[in-house]
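Good day; I would like, with your permission, to put a structural problem before you. A protein sequence and the structure tokens that stand for its backbone fold form the material at issue. Thank you for your consideration; the sequence and its tokens are set out here:
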Amino acid sequence: MFSKLRGKKSTDTKKRRSGGSGGDDDKEHAQPSQEQNGGQRNGVAVGQGVQVMSGPGAVSMGGQTAVFRVTVPENVRPGEEFQVYAGMRIVRVRCPNDSRPGQSLQITVPIDSADQSPAPGGRGGPGGPGGQQRVPPSMPDSEGVRRTRELDGDGRPAYTVEIPRGVRAGQQFSVTVGGQQLMVTCPPNTRPGMSVRIVPPNAPNDNVQHGSQLDRLPDPSTRRSGQQSRPQRPKSTNKSQMFEVVVPRGVRPGEPFALLAGGVRVLVTCPTNAQAGQKIRFNLPVGLTNRAASMASAAAKVKLSYDKDGWTRTIRVSDMKFQWVRFDDKGDVDLRNRFDTERSAYVRKLVFDRDDGGLRRGNISLVPASEGLVDSKIKSADNRDLVSYADIAAAQIKSFEEKTQWFQETCSQLCVEWNEGHMRMNVRREYLLGDSMEAVMSLSRKDLRKVWRFEFIGEVGIDAGGLAREWFQLVTEEVFDPDMGLWQSTEANQMMMQINPASEISCPDDHLIYFRFLGRVMGKALFDRQLVAGHMVQHLYKHMLGWPVTFSDLEHVDEEYYNSLKQLKYIEDVSMMCLDFTTMEDTMGAKTTVELVKGGEDIEVDNSNLPEYLEACLKYRMMGRVKPQMNELLMGFFDVIPEPLLTIFDFQELELLMCGLPVIDMDDWKEHTEYSGEYDREMENHEVCRWFWEVVEDFDQEMKARLLQFVTGTSGVPARGFGVLQGNDGNVRKFTIHSVDKQMCMYPRSHTCFNRIDLPLYDSKEELSEKLNLAVTMVATGFDIE
């Protein structure tokens, strides 16, 4: 399956995988040939550090070089030289040994002072905005060219040119006449040394045939993330405000408690030398407390009134890090430690154990949600405070569109300036995945935040954004393809992809490097406002965000397994089930026993340790069975994206940001919707169903996508429309609206395994609209700083 990828890898691949620096020294596979002959030949610059790039790989283009595409002339053979304009000067290029006439090459030429015109702000460059490109000098006529006194019918002068040595009748040769580079076909019955008469066409406006410059400064009108002028964000104040509080009753030294300070909910740890009833003091940044009014927005109030599982992200006063906490019915911090299927949650924790500027190493684990901490600051490349806790807190309550804009503006500030260097990504379409993996994995983390320019070798096309979009689409499509063996569809929803636990069997030598590669590609896509082609299972987005994973998340992965575990709680004597702390894995027909905890084969499950058994099952299914793959995926993702930057999104928003808003055909949606309960008889003509579709019609594109996420588990729409929407059994399960009594359920409920929404029998369209909006937007559990 992977033979074509492995067969084309360079000899240093295994060295990089075993812990190479990932920097420029690893790019041996992309080394170009060079011409450095120097001197002058017929007034034409020879060599001058011209680099010819004809193979795949990633090449770092510094601010002192420029890249051009040129075509090998018809009469030029491998090893021979030809001349071409590169910017504002003429250079000679030697045809590589593996190239032929008509083939496109990339050449890199150094930029000297004569190539640049300074511009305000110092961002001028050859052909780039801010610099005025000078008209190149006139190209001298080739040897043997003579102008005659004759004129053709249009008044154009005629010339005689001498046929070069080695050119036979019917072959072409190039000559320069009147500043134009022309291709002349040798007439029949002629031989080298003879002269032929030609009439050159009128000179084009620029008077010279140029190489096409590939790495120009981005056009301001078409800039994408990482190429924009950098907006100056107002600096956050570092001033603080002191608060004095009384330690609540029942709180012991070292225990946390939550309170509102300046309108902001924060988490305070009781000092070891304090006790209940005693006053303590702490400081909060003024920039955080000044936003208290906006934090009490309508959205925040809705969250407080809507039923959720109680987990909320707050600021920890001791170090200003984000921390997840759960409040009990009295509003106090829930300190219960034993696993509970209704209350407990876990978050992904990522610890870097090597960060020397090269390929980072780290380890992920699932820890209790209250132990999941995330920094609330982001620093720039020069170690300046780029984003503060106050900036993130303010962004968290914005609309999805405003969050996206803020995120993209911050990414543009993290992007390496064009003049500090950019990347040329050269890939072959027939070996797209192999070439792309080699190129991306050869990059340092700084390179990942540079502007990338793509080239499909052997194809004509300058990357002004379209080639980049195509590359991200094609690469992610190929990686997520189940036939590759790295990913597979979930049992709960065929539209959602999950990591294949047996990926090592499909790709034994390098499956983990492909997950690291995909993580980098997904991070770069997010960084550059590009989209990826695969919708992942919900809990993977939660792991990327560091969001709590609960027992109910199992239902989105495997509903049958979820229900079987849930039933264990209602068995009077669990020991009668003869269970132990192991699970069975079926890999291509081979069954193996996996211990959920150390020594699990010797631990019998009974009523006393049932919570620990359910906890072990949750941890294994949510992470343990694919931990090595997930570790590399997240490491690659965070090679590009700073983790604190993601804290403004919920997991639904992250899917929309990465995969884009779907194009939804409302007529197709309605046509392929089924009705049950009291809606079965009248179907779409039932008053409540009619209200439902009127409300959905008024939704914007984002809200329609969120409704799909709420009911089906993903925003993805099948390529053939809603008529082939699948359920957890792989069979067609159409979008279904089911009636329920309003006394049983005030808010709409979803059953993602069946693509069904339980819609209460509301009394008015206004009530339906209010409750549906709340259910759809608040399905993501407690989020933001209340």
